[in-house]
Amino acid sequence: MEKRITGNVLSDGVCVGCIVKWTDDSITLDYTESKAAEVRQTLLNEDAECDRFRKVKNAVAAKLTSLLTCAENDSAAAGSAEKAEIIRSYIAILNDPELEKDVLQCIREQKVFLTEALTLTAQEYTYDMSVLEDDYLKQRAQDFEQLFAMLLSYASGNVQKRPHIEKPCILAAKVLSPIDMSEVDKNLLLGIISEEGGKTSHTAIIARSYAIPMISGIPYTEIKENDKAVIDTEKKLCVLNPDAATASFYAERTAELQKEKEYFNALVEKRALTEDGVRIELMANIGSVQEVSQAVAQRADGVGLFRTEFLLSEAGTDFPSEKNQFKTYRAVLQGMNGKSVTIRTFDIGGDKVYPCVHLPKEENPFLGWRGVRYMLDNTELLHTQLRALLRASVYGTLHIMFPMITTEEEVKSLLSSIERIKKDLHKEKIPYGRNVKVGVMIETPAAALIADKLAQIVDFFSIGTNDLTQYTLASDRNNTKIAHLYRENHPAVLQLIRMTIDAGKKYKKHVCVCGEMAGNPLFTQELLNLGLRCFSMTPANIQKIKKEILSAKITGADKKQKKEV
Ligand code: PEP
Ligand code: MG
Fold first, then answer.
1. What is the pTM for the complete model shown?
2. Where is the Phosphotransferase system enzyme I N-terminal domain (predicted)?
3. Read out DSSP for 346-376?
4. Which of 246, 267, 451, 514 could form a disulfide with 500 if both were Cys (CB 3.0 to 4.6 A apart)?
């Protein structure tokens, strides 16, 4: 009988196929060695167990290294950079001397066999993280779990036999680790269903980079091998055992989507000109170095927003160093090959919390110590980031952007920090770009209302409609209960966008929209009518918006705007 289950969308898409079940990899204690304490002690040879751990560790390290080599050799394939990065993070966890120390100590102090020591250590490592609310930490707990699961399967001589996937299928798992993902041919994956896993999990990142639809929150016990299934992320739905009507509906829908995909692929090389010949810039929003390749593949005119917060997620408990930041910014600038790259300074606070940033609990975090408010009070962090950015600026066309601005004073203070860092670099004879542009996000009503003043002291604006909408309409952007109130095209929001664009025009300052609104085709004509000529969005939406642009007409006074020659 057909069963419809609502899940969490981890990677967009619609697919229909037969299920192949992946084995359950969650950590389970191997009771064969968990005998009664007194029996165990007579059998246990602690030295031999410690020795066994080193051998298991070497075997897992060898496996990870060979997977890493494959990923690196296959660097042209979609998702291989992400995969390599994930495997490197597993290797780093494995090589941490603390891990070996803790497992060996557990064997000796608790008088247990290796498998039990691994189970206990894994529980200790992951417990603290998994009970936290923070999604990112939960996902990192899963990384630890998955590495320990690998150690355990080698320790128990029970390296799981994986299903051999030979034809296109929907893969179903309780949890699917990035290592598991590296072992399957992604070209044969129509979709992925899992019970666990969030949007920031490494597996979800890989699924997105291969454009494989993925949905989580589907109980593994409900799923039967070889049953037909549908994933429809447009409806956040997984249909198990679809009946004839559902199956034929989705056969048609997938055919339509395939046609649409081919149509969008054909648009990639086309320039974004309106029907009446006005050139529109289509930029990419990215959140990691890996996404540069997607921006390039979609022929983005540049990066309109690089959210740098991923550096904070990956930094563990220490703030990312100047050197690490520099390398990241340089890689993005080099990857974009001279096209402009707008890098936003850390937007800490609100819903963005990280292990290396110690934020106090606030009553209203979205109205609290957020964005530049936090950075201006933590000048060491601000200066480290600005130094890294300015040093990297010689490798491309850098624009520095500040989030969460509400006053002119904040901007002036940030501009003087930049000047101070430039002077320091000059004294230290460290090169930096002379033409770095500095701009601000217009994402608070206050910033939009004083856009006229701000335009006189900055080089550009980028309108963050995600926050601008929530602050203007007093509607939390993440609260589904009031989602009906959160409307980017509410007249009040449109009025603030218009004011910002007008201020930009008056002072000849570049204006872009980098909130989700820019990537939504429903709003393209409206934004063009307001005078917007630069849209920045997730690379996956660029062709969708280009399609709108190609058939759009510039109305009113803007008609005279320069045409593409
Ligand atoms: C925005 O607020 O529109 C924006 C682009 O920033 P973020 O979504 O990162 O808050
Ligand atoms: Mg914002």
1. 0.68
2. 7-140
3. P--BTTB--TTS-PPP-S-GGGSS-THHHHH
4. 451
